[in-house]
């Protein structure tokens, strides 16, 4: 590869592509439309809450090989936090249950799933024959949905359905079983060592973005934030110009482009140069709620050790306890589009109070007060990422393009390209590396 590599989009796919190319000695310019890089995985100062928050909670698993390789390349593995073991605290707060049920899924470390034999480590109420759901999922063919693979029972209700909603960001009735299986092959089916949960200790940008930018600058790459690429000029099957805010950038003969923007933006930019190119066009939202409350020093038990818990039977799905903040994730949240923020925040606070209260240590403060949760929601911020990911349905899966295009010097990257995985950090990072490799091949 010679010439300059122009990377359009400073999300994790773009950063991964830029790092792969700059690390191999290529000149790189990265163009990011927003004021900062990170895309859908970013941190920012929230004036209303008076603190820094992530746009949404992101969970990584130790089996995310490309992500950990990326973290090692940018020297940021140590910025992650987590329990260090494959444990997942859960609570079932279904209204039809007499009382809330709390348990912790504790996977055995190796490939053999010994944990399923131990009632104290597995999902309460599950029967062993329900494990057939996993077998059916791993053997699923194109067109099969997650729901079609599931045997009714507690394994589905308390683990596989919640897991598939958060992994696919799509309801199981329409979610692709093949995509879910691809994620499971690299996690649950690979054993507990591949399922150790990790999340950024301080924030997404501190772990995944800022160290990458520092490494890029050390390689001499140029990063231009606030620089939206408005169009691509082409001539005889090549990209020859980028339309930038200040005018046109003419590409040299050896220059190439990695288009690492979102699917809707890629569709717009490529409509002229590649008419007829079909890309994913249906999306699901994720709703995140951040409550300004400092509970991290008042919790005990598995929730405190893990730093998060899964919730079954409410609208809240995961709760994360961070310094000064309690954050909640609701995936596949298109169904909440019509509900106002105050109503959602009040309902979710009631739900997570039932998960947090039992974990509160009855410690007396210096002023003699016992810590307890406020009845009403503390100050909060609701963030709705309307197009958080493409809908991981069997129909959308067919629309995911590979990295190569009919333009010789343009390749695609992004979690929506055909990574073989659902729209995840791991998929985005892999797509960036794949795109750069594709350019190197004639
Ligand atoms: C709330 C939320 C929670 C999530 N939780 C998880 C999780 O727990 N685990 C997990 O693995 N994944 C999770 N994901 C998914 C993960 O964040 C994404 O898969 C990943 O960040 C996508 O990276 P990307 O680079 O493909 O796209 P993006 O991050 O969207 O990057 C595209 C970039 O291109 C820029 N851009 C757009 N148009 C232009 C233009 N014309 N010129 C220049 N730049 C442009 C955008 O500003 C953006 O920065 C979550 C996503 C959300 C939204």
Helices and strands in order:
Elements: E1 4-8, H1 12-23, E2 27-31, E3 43-46, E4 51-54, E5 60-61, H2 65-73, E6 80-81, E7 87-92, E8 101-106, H3 132-138, H4 146-149, H5 154-168, H6 177-185, E9 197-200, H7 204-218, E10 222-224, E11 231-235, E12 238-244, E13 247-250, E14 256-259, H8 263-270, E15 283-292, H9 301-306, E16 308-312, E17 318-322, E18 325-330, H10 341-356, E19 380-390, H11 394-397, E20 410-412, H12 425-440
Helix pairs in contact: 1-7, 1-12, 2-12
The protein binds flavin-adenine dinucleotide.
Could you please describe the fold and organization of this structure?
With 442 residues, the protein is α/β, with parallel strands linked by helices. Among the domains are: 4-77 and 200-281 and 400-440, FAD/NAD(P)-binding domain, CATH 3.50.50.60; 127-193, no CATH class. Helix content is 27%, strand content 23%. The strands form five sheets. The protein has a seven-stranded mixed β-sheet with strand order 8-7-16-17-18-15-19, with helices on both faces. A hairpin with a 2-residue loop joins strand 12 and strand 13 (247-250). Helix 1 packs parallel to helix 7 (204-218), helix 1 runs parallel beside helix 12 and helix 2 (65-73) packs across helix 12. The longest helix is centred in the last third of the chain and has 16 residues, at 341-356. The chain is globular, with a radius of gyration of 22 Å. Flavin-adenine dinucleotide binds at residues 8-14, 31-34, 39-41, 55-56, 58-59, 228-229, 260-262, 265, 286, 288, 385, 388-389, 414-415, 423-426, 428.
